[in-house]
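Instructor's aside before we start: the two examples that follow are unrelated to each other. I chose them only because their records fit on one page, so don't look for a connection. First example below.
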Amino acid sequence: MRFFPLEKLINLHDHYTRRFKIDSVELLLIQRAGERYLIEARCPHRDHPLDAATIADGIIQCALHQYQFAIADGQLIHATEEPCRGLRTFELVYDGNEVGVMLNDGE
């Protein structure tokens, strides 16, 4: 596994949302109510990008079909069509003044 830095801690604030791409992995770094989350950046239902999604009360809602997922654990909360898997979540790793993620090469 390898550490990939994502953002400097000084740049993080509530309502922060930013998409990152590391090799083939697309990630969404989110900060809400002082908590930070790292989730996959595309909806597992129809692969729609989640960087335009609505985030409120710990729930991210895809703009395409309004599927809802918990940002803390990725659990599917609401499906408007056929059910899909939950979002992949990733553990944040802190290194000095940066936050990042550990990924396997080619993940």
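Example two begins here.
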Amino acid sequence: MTTTRHAIHPSHFKTLDTKSLREEFLLDKLFTTDAINHVYTHYDRLIVSGAAPETKAVTLETIDALKANFFLERRELGIINVGPKASVTVDGQSFTLENKEALYVSRGTKSVVFQPTAGARFYINSSPAHREYPTRKISLADADTITIGSPETSNHRTIRKLLVNSVLETCQLQMGLTELHQGSVWNTMPPHTHDRRMEAYFYFNIPQGQAVCHFIGEPNETRHIWIKNNEAVLSPPWSVHSGAGTSNYAFIWGMAGENLDYGDMDVVQPNELL
């Protein structure tokens, strides 16, 4: 199944009620057993997808929006395993991914098959690409990993940069995951915007009965969206993106745009938010 999300202007954003905010920015139906669901966005043409091959293999097929002979004819792809150990076959080569490991798939790849495993969950981002870079698996040991924040400010967290230019070359796609330490709830605090690229957050490992309140909007016009486990949210280039959970949790960040500098952020201090 493929759905489309159009870009929203900041002036339009100010008029949206809770229902409209969720319809425009929340991606809440990513996983269907033995299928791939896609959300084609008009934010830097990022595609956000979820694959759940539980009882049979699932193949990445092209979609009408691409007008392409195959899905990766003009695109690159990032996959992060958010389920049990499972494998992906890329043009006949098998890659086994442990939980939280990543796979970068090159532009020009014709066949991507997600192999069946009970409980399998693959989170996927794809963006347009201008050239081919090698397909490569990234383990947690390969990741560029940092721990920042503190228990005193409730934002002690470990950031694992998986598909970023300090680890491997990509055209414009960047992906990684952040894990909140026990007792910490705030992510991306202080928050920021980056007008050179958009971002999508996928929240997972949220305990049953808990949730994350995700903040979105211009720094002087913020709103919130409540997120449940295995749901994602879009963040336009003009919007802050931050969240606070009722428990610790993990999330995957994916970015697309013209700047591959991970540190390209226009930071907003907490006392400047409205």
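The chain has a mean pLDDT of 95.
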